[in-house]
Design brief:
The chain is α/β, with parallel strands linked by helices. Helices cover about 40% and strands about 15% of the residues. It is built from 12 helices and 12 strands. The strands form 2 sheets. The protein has a 6-stranded parallel β-sheet, with helices on both faces. It has a 6-stranded mixed β-sheet with strand order 7-6-8-9-10-12, with helices on both faces.
Amino acid sequence: MTASINDVAQAVGVSASTVSRALRGRPGVSDEVRDRITAVAAQLGYTASRSASSLASGRTYTIGVVVPYVGRWFFGTVLDAAERELSAAGYDVLLYNLGSPETRKRFFTKLPVRKRVDAVLSLLIPDDEESAALRSLGVPLASTVGGARPGFTVVGIDDRAGTESAVRHLVNLGHRRIGMISGASGPLHWTTPVERRNAYLDVLADAGIEHDPALEADGDYTVEGGERAMTELLAASRPPTAVFAQSDEMAMGALRALRRHRLKAPDDVSVVGFDDHELADVVGLTTVAQPVAEQGAEAARLLLRRLDEPGAEPPGHVQMPIRLVLRETTAPPSPRGPR
């Protein structure tokens, strides 16, 4: 007969839940006991069954992840890092891509994750009703976007501080005509574009630079959008000598637009981005580096900790470090400006 988890527990002299934790590599089991359990399980030919483990623990060993755009670099990077952590801990990921208002409304109306997941990682910012719906699931909740909100552990960065360092860098170089490529048409309720725009305006005001609405353009947080936005800025009656792009992808699009207009960064226009995308170093982009993958990994680790230590008080907000990375796309303004 096939050995059961109870057979292993009885042979070692521990509980079945201890055997389950040990064989799944979860904390709360000493190395000595874990080694004994592993040896006895191998001797008896016991292999942990996901369904049996779920029945014994009441867990599904599945984490729900909701994203607005699974195909975009930021969300894909966060998702990949989180999935690695969860998979290593023995959990599956149930992904919901809520890219349209219709699918988003349907998800929060029906809540298909109910009783199917042990926790939820949200890569979108829920409104008050959506937040209440997620809290009604009665499972740990985490996010990597937006600020602190009740019932969630949020892992993120200081968008204002990052933007201030980027725009202040351009000001300190001597630029006065500083444009911005934003992501005003980003995901629903996404606060990042607003936070970064407010910081941009504050730095201009502190430097005594009058804001010119003609120096702002929407880049849709994509390379193609960044290229369109940069083309729009270059067509202004007085083009910018420097541009802050709210993401590296938009900054790369801006660099492509400059090349197509036979201009160079930083000789004609300085460009600074935000993210430190994996290709930022390749193109020599000055940018604000944020630990995108680490945010996903940390959010996953915090969810796992909540599941292993349900009585512990979860952190409400975890702020990750950011830094300005100086490369080759920024310099003092050229006397001639964009030609």
